[in-house]
Amino acid sequence: GLFVTDYFTRTPRKLSPFRSFASIELFHFHIPEDTVIAVWNLITFKEQGGTFGDQCPDRSITVYFRSGAPSVINPLHTHFPRDTAVPGSFALTLTWTLPNRTTGVFNVTSPLPGDWFLAAHLPKDEGKISVKGLYEECQYLFQPQLIVQRLVNIAVLYPGHVTEQSMAPHNRSCLYKVFVPSYTSRVLVEVLRCRGAEGCPLWLRVRAKAPPLHNSTTLDCREHTPCQLAQDLPFWQHWYYVLVEKHPGVPGTVSFQVTVQLTDCSRPSLARPPFLPSSASMNMPHSFGSAGGLALGDNPPPTSPNDTKHPAPIPVTSHAGERCWPIRPTLRNELDTFSVHFYIFFGPNVSVPPDRPAVFVINLLPVLDSGGVLNLELRLNVSSLCGENVTVFGCLNHEVPLTSGDNTSVTCETESLAGFLLSVNATASLSRLRIPYPQTGSWYLSLRSLCATEHGFEPCTNVTAEVYLRAYLSPCINDCGIYGQCKLLRTNNYLYAACECKAGWNGWGCTDNAEAFSYGFQLLSTLLLCLSNVMFVPPVAIAVRSHYLLEAAVYIFTMFFSTFYHACDQPGIVVFCIMEYDVLQFCDFLGSLMSVWVTVIAMARLQPIVKQASVLYLLGAMLLSMALQMDRHGLWNLLGPSLFALGIMAVAWTARTIRRRHCYPPTWKRWAFYLCPGALIAAAAVLLYAFVETEENYFYIHSIWHLLIAGSVGFLLPPRAKPSRRLGPLPRRKGCGYQLCVNEQEELGLVDPAVASINSICTS
To answer: Where, by residue number, does the polypeptide cross the bilayer (predicted)?
Structure first.
């Protein structure tokens, strides 16, 4: 056949350590129909500071693959919420082959067409809290590329039409496909009039959605006469691929005929009519590729009804599940993103008769609905059982309803079909099912009632059970509970939702409490972080006593907003917010930086130059507000203002030292008992904040940070300035009437009043 190669790539993305599904990187691909092989080229490389990260440690990268919807992964082996079905996926771990680059290859032969999703992440780390910009961080970038090879012009088989084929000696196999419409209960593929050098040396393989593999349903035509391969309960609205393969080492040409019969479950006594010219009459797609042909790439035979060879309609023996029941549709009501309710006409209470199942269909839109959670709830009305021991079983299957004719069967699976089982009875009247990241398409729910007896389950008589049915799509499971936050995430044009847990809770729905913080621990951590700010009371008292009223106001501002910010920032349920979180965070960060700024400016002793000191205070407040609005977690937000203030202080101290020709501050006691201890305490606080703080020790390390910073302020704040020895204005004496004595030279600001001779002008 003719092959076409397609190439797809994605932009490299930075990988993060795994904490929850919200921390993974998701990549979305689309594989076209008739693809025979898909090759993923997985490229990973390191970067550090804009260059190759040769010195970065090797960290394994885990990649997950799944068709139809994102993978539901659990690398931390946490517990899933109750009644949650976990679909499977394939995982691959990449190891490093070069210092800064590695490449992995993942091949899929005959992949399922449609959407494919790749999820990648790094292993979980120790949760260190690093200051942004302190050092160059190692980045691990991941870029997947996809190469697909697909066949074009695959011969199409039409139900009831006989296709003749001659397989030349150099040919190994012939590939066909047939479309299976809705309400089809059985697909029968038959090889007729097979003639070869050694009887019928052919293998017959059938597979849904993609070309057959070595482990697909197979029949050896040498051992079976007639050579018929049947598929019960086929997937509706999908292509089925038929591969006729020659045994190895068979000489000569092998000729045969291939025909397909589809059993219509609405008319189980007859097969589907032979090929009809109109594709709409069979609910088939309008684009067929090539019509039924002799070989891959050969011209098809005439398709007019007069030239079509087909056998007469044949009676079909009754098989389990060949009879189909009316399928009740559901009404889709979209409330929000991943918030969809499926309403049943004349529901939500449905009646399940004893003699037949009740079948419903739930349609999930492609791509749009696969990023949420499909929820199903059954509630039995016990009063409708009339005292009978009735159990209502529900089977949820994808793309085909499971309506077995065996009434005593309680399974929702066959050899080629897997489903989910729900059951309700008088003792357990409620049953739930949650499917995270469901595959899109049609989901069929079949409800049937059976009575429990000594010999197992048997059909009930004259009892119609009433069941409350609720089906809906939600972003997360139970909105992630009280210890989680449901986040809406986006990768390119694909939306999906995931839980981000807190307070030590884990799991897909934040329900795993193996490492959860207790209430007492949450209360203790909140009190430590809040009450540690009381350490600012001594610096406030010292500032007020030393007449540093502006500094005292800044310390009070910092203490207030730091206390209530940490009360609002807690991950658990011990949370108290007096205003919006963003406002509290901004005020806390601003107060902390302003405390450093005003303390260092006060140490510079600029009070005699009153106007310049006020300008610096106001300039610092404006610049710090601007910097925090740009980036609140950047290193230079703390380092820049601190270095600038320290520079002003150093210039002021140097000027005093040069003018006085003596070291400033002049006393060794000031250095030994105040400046050096305060500087050491502040340095210890910065080291703890930058290098020791992690997510696990945050509550007590950050509390120590509060204590140390407040303590350093108490040591570094300078003492009260001594009054100046210069003479002030002369006292004004009053006699009879008013007498104003003014020092003329002092009033004009011409000389220093301390050395000027007094020359007063008195005016009555």
So the answer is: 516-536, 548-567, 573-597, 609-628, 634-655, 671-692, 698-717
